[in-house]
């Protein structure tokens, strides 16, 4: 929802985007803005989630970085190219922010720490197989258990080497 917690008019969103209300209505009618960001009140479209609308606008509109770079080649004044780049970067940052708020992104350090913890626990359990094997199968000789331990260490070393 928006700051006020209620949908905003297409014209208000157009001012926010720096475009015409017609461009916003076209985006709605062509499906570039979807029910995720648009509601209809008294048969008139309203923007119910500005962040989602910005994300959809960035994802579904052909104003990519490549097109922004092409503006400079076409001789568009640097001021406008700069504005287009800033707008593109803002849309990308909004997309990342929205994905983070939705829980779609994970912290790489947290994933790495959790992965390392699991690997260490697995290694510890595998290295304990020999002792458990001797307890559960007492007829095995010490040499049999040593062979199993050796095989486990060999496999672990192979995994560690990649």
Q: Mind explaining what this structure looks like?
A:
- This protein is mainly alpha-helical and 162 residues long.
- The protein has two domains: 8-101, no CATH class; 108-161.
- It is built from eight helices and three strands; from the N terminus they run βααββαααααα.
- Helix 1 (10-17) packs across helix 2 (21-29), helix 4 runs antiparallel to helix 5 and helix 7 runs antiparallel to helix 8.
- The longest helix is centred in the middle third of the chain and has 24 residues, at 78-101.
Structural topology:
Elements: E1 8-9, H1 10-17, H2 21-29, E2 38-41, E3 44-47, H3 50-60, H4 65-73, H5 78-101, H6 108-127, H7 129-136, H8 142-161
Antiparallel strand pairs: 1-3, 2-3
Helix pairs in contact: 1-2, 3-5, 4-5, 7-8
Compact description:
By secondary structure, the chain is mostly helical. It is built from eight helices and three strands, in the order βααββαααααα.
Highlighted features:
162 residues; mainly alpha; 2 domains; three-stranded antiparallel beta sheet; 8 helices; 6% strand; elongated
Tally of separate domains: 2
How would you sum up the major sheet?
Answer: 3 strands, antiparallel
- Indicate the percent of residues in helices: 55-70%
Q: pLDDT average, as an integer?
A: 86
- Our Rg estimate from Cα atoms comes to 29 Å
What's the β-strand tally? 3
Count of discrete alpha- or pi-helical segments spanning 4 or more residues? 8
Spatial strand order of the main sheet: 1-3-2
| Low-confidence runs | none
Shape: elongated
The fraction of residues assigned to DSSP E strands is 5-15%
CA(first)-CA(last) distance: 48 Å
